[in-house]
Write a structure and sequence with these properties.
Shape: globular
Distance between the termini: 54 Å
Strand order of the largest sheet: 5-18-17-21-19-20
Radius of gyration: 26 Å
Largest sheet: 6 strands, mixed
Strand content: 15-25%
C-alpha cells in the first residue's frame, strides 16, 4: 500500500497557508484513497500516516463501528480486480480527541484531526481514461416529451444485422404503433410507425451513421376537426408476475427492441443464447461513461422501478437468478435511488464503479463487476454474463407491461454549442434539426454536431438525418472545442498502450494500417479493437490513432471474408 503525496497549500487560500493545512483537507467532502491488492483488508491494517484528497460527491455507505471490522470481500486478488478503498473523513479541531480509532491515533497532526467515518469499495478495470465529464450541463434536466415532428424518416436498418423489409407502400395510411417493416432474419428487428400519417416515399435518405440508407418517409396527419385520432396499435399488456420466459422473448421481438448502449443489437437475440451456453448473471450498464450524456442517469432517478422490473423480466427470460446494476460513482443520487429500488429484491445488487472511460463497455463492465475476463474472440455469454443497458430494461418493461413497441428514443441534447440542454423523449425518425430547434437552436460559435457521445459518436454533415432507436444523445461542440490539433511524430511515450483497456499497442496498429500491412495488423490483433478512442484521447502527438485503427480493422475484416470465401 502506498500513501498519496501531500499537497502544498494553494497560494490563493491564505487561510490554508496560515494553518499549514493542505487546501483539500478543508473541502466540504474530503476523502482519502488507498489502492490495494489483497482480496480482504481490515481497517486496522491501514497505514498510520494517511493523506486526504478532495471528494465532492455525497455518498452514504455502511458504517464500520470498530477498526477491526473487515471490508467487503471483492472475491479476487492481485490484478483480477483493480480496487480503491475510499474512506470518507471528518475534520475536527486539534483539541477534539474523542472517538479516534486506535489505528489513526498517530495520525493526529497538531492542527488536524482525522476521524474514520465510512468505507466504500469502487471496482474498475485496468487502463482507460477520464475525460472532462461535462454532465452538469444536463444532469439536472428531467425528461421532456417532444411533440411529433412535421416529417418522420424511419431507416429500415436501425439495428445491427439485416435491415427490415417494408410492409407498406407509398401513399399508405399508417397508425401509431403499426408495423411498417418486418424483421428479415434472425438478427434483425421490425420497425413501427411512431405517428399517425401517410407514407410519402420509400427510398434512400441521410442517416446518422454518415451513410445514405433505405428509409420510409411518413408525413404525420392530425385528425379532422371533430374527429378522434385512431387508437394506437399497441400489443396486449402481459402480467409481469406470471409471464413466461418464451412470452417475454416473443414480446421483445415483436416490439422491435434493440440495445440502447450504442451497438443496437436486437435484444431478442441476446435473450436467446445458444444451447450449451449457461448464463449466470445479467448486468445492467448504468455507467454512462461517455462525457456529456445523462439519459441513463435520468432514467435511474425518474424510473428506478421500471429498471428493476425490466431487469427481472430479462433475468426470467434467461433463467437467471442473479442480477447486478453497475453505476459509476459520479452519480451518487442514482446509486442511492437504485439501491432503494432493489432493497428486498432477492438476487439483485447495485455495484458502485470507479468513474472512468470506457467503464460501460461490455468486457470492462464484466471485469469490474465480477472479475471475469472475456477471452479474445469470445462474447460475454462465454463467461456466463449478459449485458443490457438501463434504457433497454425500461423498454422491455414497457413492452411487456404496457404493450408499447419501440416508438421513441430517450436522449440527451447537450454541449456548449446548444442553447438549452435537455433530456428528451423523441419520436423515432425525428430529424436532428427538429430536435436541435426544440432545444433553442445552436449557439453562434457552434461548430460540430455529434450523434452519440464525443468519444465514440459520429459527427454529422446533414442535420436532416433522423433520430434512431438507439440514439443516446446529440452533443454540440463549439469552435474552440472542435479545433483540430496539429499532428506531430509519435513520441514513443507509451500513453496509448497504458490507456488501452484491451492491452493492444495502438501506435503499432495504426502504423500497420497506414502502411497497408494488413496481415501484420491482423497478427497484432487489430480486430480486437473496440474503437473506444482512449488511445487518441491520450496521445500527446495528436495522432488520429482510433481513426487509423478503424480503417485498418475494416480492411482486415474484408480480407478475412475474402479468405473465407475462397477457402
Amino acid at each position: 500500500m502506498s500513501e498519496f503525496p501531500s499537497r502544498e497549500p494553494h497560494a490563493e487560500c491564505p487561510e490554508a497557508s496560515r494553518s499549514r493545512i493542505p487546501v483539500d483537507v478543508q473541502q466540504r467532502h474530503p476523502r482519502l484513497t488507498i489502492p490495494f491488492a489483497p482480496s480482504r483488508l481490515r481497517v486496522s491494517e491501514l497505514p498510520s500516516r494517511l493523506r486526504v484528497s478532495e471528494f465532492p460527491s455525497r455518498l452514504r455507505v455502511s458504517e464500520f463501528p470498530n477498526p477491526d471490522t473487515p471490508l467487503p470481500n471483492c472475491g479476487h486478488s492481485g490484478f483480477d480486480i483493480i480496487t480503491e478503498i475510499v474512506i470518507f473523513v471528518t475534520i475536527a479541531g486539534a483539541r477534539s480527541k474523542c472517538g479516534i480509532p486506535h489505528v489513526l491515533r498517530r495520525c493526529t497532526d497538531p492542527l488536524v484531526l482525522i476521524t474514520l467515518n465510512t468505507v466504500m469499495i469502487f471496482k474498475t478495470f485496468p487502463g482507460g481514461v477520464h475525460p472532462a465529464e461535462q454532465k452538469e450541463l444536463s444532469e439536472h434536466c428531467a425528461f421532456e416529451i417532444m411533440p411529433d415532428p412535421d416529417v418522420v424518416i424511419l431507416p429500415l436498418s436501425q439495428h445491427l444485422g439485416k435491415q427490415a423489409r417494408p410492409l407498406v407502400e407509398k401513399r399508405a395510411v399508417v397508425v401509431k404503433g403499426q408495423v411498417v417493416a418486418e424483421a428479415d432474419g434472425f438478427i434483425s428487428a421490425p420497425v413501427h410507425s411512431p405517428v399517425n400519417g401517410t407514407v410519402k416515399s420509400i427510398g434512400r435518405e441521410s442517416n446518422a451513421s454518415g451513410f445514405v440508407k433505405d428509409a420510409l418517409v411518413i408525413i404525420p396527419t392530425a385528425p379532422a376537426e371533430g374527429e378522434e385520432a385512431p387508437a394506437p396499435q399497441f400489443l396486449p399488456p402481459l402480467d409481469a408476475a406470471t409471464v413466461s420466459p418464451a412470452d417475454i422473448r416473443a414480446r421483445v421481438k415483436e416490439a422491435g427492441i434493440v440495445g440502447q448502449g450504442g451497438a443496437a443489437f436486437p435484444t431478442f437475440v441476446k435473450l436467446s443464447p445458444p444451447e450449451g451456453k449457461t448464463i449466470e448473471v445479467v448486468i445492467l450498464n448504468g455507467c454512462e461513461c461517455e462525457p456529456y450524456l445523462t439519459r441513463d442517469h435520468r432514467f435511474m432517478l425518474e424510473r428506478p422501478e421500471a429498471i428493476v422490473g425490466g431487469l427481472q423480466l430479462i433475468m426470467r427470460a434467461l433463467g437467471v437468478r442473479k442480477g447486478a446494476i453497475g453505476i459509476e460513482n459520479n452519480k451518487p443520487d442514482a446509486i442511492e435511488a437504485m439501491r432503494r429500488a432493489v432493497q428486498g429484491v432477492e438476487g439483485l445488487e447495485v455495484v458502485a464503479l470507479k468513474t472512468k472511460y470506457p467503464q460501460g463497455a461490455e468486457k470492462m463492465l464484466i471485469k469490474a463487476v465480477n472479475g471475469r475476463e472475456v477471452p479474445v474472440g469470445k462474447l460475454p455469454l462465454d463467461v456466463g454474463a449478459v449485458i443490457q443497458n438501463i434504457g433497454t430494461a425500461v423498454a422491455v418493461f414497457d413492452a411487456v407491461t404496457k404493450g408499447e413497441p419501440s416508438l421513441t428514443a430517450a436522449l440527451t441534447v447537450t454541449g456548449h454549442g446548444i442553447r438549452t440542454p435537455k433530456n428528451l423523449i423523441v419520436p423515432v425518425g425525428t430529424p436532428l434539426r427538429n430536435v436541435i430547434a426544440y432545444c433553442g437552436g445552436l449557439t453562434d460559435d457552434a461548430a460540430k454536431v455529434i450523434v452519440g457521445g464525443p468519444m465514440m459518436g459520429v459527427a454529422q454533415h446533414d442535420l436532416s438525418a433522423p433520430v434512431m432507436k438507439a440514439t443516446s444523445g446529440i452533443v454540440v461542440l463549439t469552435k474552440a472545442q472542435a479545433r483540430a490539433e496539429e499532428e506531430t511524430a509519435c513520441l514513443r511515450c507509451g500513453k496509448c498502450i497504458d490507456a488501452c483497456p484491451l492491452h493492444l499497442q495502438p501506435t503499432r496498429l495504426a502504423r500497420t494500417s497506414q502502411l497497408g500491412m494488413l496481415e501484420q495488423a491482423e497478427e497484432y490483433g487489430i480486430t480486437v479493437c473496440m474503437e473506444c478512442g482512449s488511445c487518441a484521447y491520450t496521445c500527446p502527438a495528436h495522432i488520429p490513432l482510433v481513426q487509423w485503427l478503424r480503417l485498418g480493422k475494416q480492411k482486415v475484416i474484408q480480407m478475412q471474408r475474402k479468405r473465407s470465401a475462397t477457402a
